[in-house]
Design goal:
Elements: E1 2-6, E2 32-35, H1 37-45, E3 50-52, H2 53-59, H3 63-68, H4 72-75, H5 80-98
């Protein structure tokens, strides 16, 4: 199993522990999901805003930032330093999706 960290809104992966209503309670910035690497890559290719944990950790969010700016509404008011990390996470997601994750057809 691999760890993927949420950097955006909710996602669905059918036939996994992440499907169904219960996972929505954990859909905040920094939430960690355990799944196979293939399921993670497929979810990202299909639009989920997930990063491999080591990539997410390298961005350097603090525990306080993850708690204080857990969703898009709160992130809109985040200070510049946190905004820069959010942007870095989105860029990393784009790079992962177009590079390591491939396209839907490749997964």
């Amino acid at each position: 199993m691999s760890s993927f960290v949420l950097v955006g809104g909710p996602f669905e992966i059918y036939d996994t522990p992440m499907s169904g209503e219960s996972h929505l309670f954990r859909c905040t910035l920094g939430s960690v999901f355990e799944m196979s690497e293939d399921d993670g890559k497929k979810a990202v290719a299909e639009g989920a805003a997930l990063l491999p944990k080591e990539t997410f950790d390298a961005i350097g969010f603090t525990a306080e930032e993850l708690k204080k700016y857990s969703n898009a509404r709160l992130q809109a008011e985040a200070p510049a330093e946190c905004q820069a990390k959010l942007l870095a996470a989105r860029i990393a997601l784009h790079n992962y999706r177009t590079g390591a994750a491939g396209t839907k057809e490749e997964v």
